[in-house]
Amino acid sequence: MLVALVDTLKQLRYQIAHLEDDTLATEYPELEHFIHQVGLTVAESKNDLAFVYQFLYVYGRKSEATFNRFRNELERFCLWSWLVAEKSVFDLKREDIEAYVDFMVEPDSAWLSSSVQWRYKDEQGIRRLNTNWRPFINKENIASQQTLAAMFTALNVFYKFAILEEKTFANFVPVVKKNSPYLVVQSQIKIPDTLSDIQWEYVFGVTRDLCEQQPDLERNLFTLACLKGLYLRISELSERPQWSPVMSHFWQDNDGFWFLRIMGKGNKLRDVTLSEDFISYLKRYRLYRGLPALPRVDEAEPLVHKIRGKGGMTVRQIRRLVQQSFDLAKQSLLDDGFKDDAEQLEAATAHWLRHTGATHDAQTRPLKHLSEDLGHAKIATTDQIYIQTNIKERAKSGIKRKV
């Protein structure tokens, strides 16, 4: 039976302590039994897991999103190493890593689940395993370019960390990645995923129109305005262990300009500028919540509130709000005869809203201003992703050439 090796970020320190004290069975009986059984074949598996926990603890301090991303990749990698290759992760050679990449492309059906599953649930002080959990989600294309890139990144960072900690002296990941037949060299023209004008008009407009009948949709409307109008990542709106977005993070300078202080990737703070249009939706949302039209400097109210309970919302909860508005828009598009736009909207994610806002504003805003509001460390990143001027000019100059 496949067993999830890592619980949540919150539970990680308990798992570390249990592993060190040899008391894993008291809280994780299924995991302890699994590690014992694997240890009969791979003697170093317990030490592997202890080091993976150490790695995740260090990188999990950056953000929960980083923890989740590395957890998923390293968990399935360890399981493959122990159960398929029957080796410690520090005994794997180049050809083993290549075999793992092949497995990623076509995993065994027993390793697949039809949907996202929780790992462990508390039951009278014991963390019970969900037997339906699997390392992979069954999708039409499991090993997409994005998935493979994420896998290579996680393994490369892990082995670099292991070298620094003198756990190993070899990292075969870069050479395997360089020669991988599954990775496609990116095209020179790469356009970010965005909503079309009509899709955005329906997503935002339908949500806004329904607010009168369903007042709680005001929260959806404000969330959409933040993600598209302020180019925010969904994690930047959510409650995190080291950062809670609150209303006092809105602030006004001496010239009357408004900003929102954001904790972005790598725990970097930035101040995003607010447009007049966004401020009108901020006022609308605050009045719906029974707050004064504009925030105060000492206001501890969460940026995006829960209908029930206290505090801000998690990434998953905010994503559900966005999906609700996408679903409402899709149905309205179908009703109005825009079948293609409705079908294309099915593939959209919350992150498309950030790309949509930035792509639209790249036509009118100075590149440096846009880059700083997006939170890009390098202006070249903004230029590469959102500025298509040279590409369009090249296309125009070449359209009349003869064969």
UniProtKB/TrEMBL annotation:
Compartments where located: Cytoplasm
- Pfam families noted in UniProt: Phage_integrase
Q: Which UniProt keywords apply?
A: DNA integration, DNA recombination, DNA-binding
For whether the record's keyword set contains Transcription regulation, the answer is no
- InterPro entries the UniProt entry points to: DNA_brk_join_enz, Integrase-like_cat_sf, Integrase_catalytic, Integrase_recombinase_N, Tyrosine_recombinase_XerCD
| Keyword Iron-sulfur among UniProt keywords | no
Q: Where is the Tyr recombinase domain?
A: 190-400
PANTHER family registered for this protein in UniProt = PHAGE INTEGRASE-RELATED, TYROSINE RECOMBINASE XERC
Please state what the protein is called.
Tyrosine-type recombinase/integrase
Q: What is the species listed in this Swiss-Prot or TrEMBL entry?
A: Pseudoalteromonas lipolytica
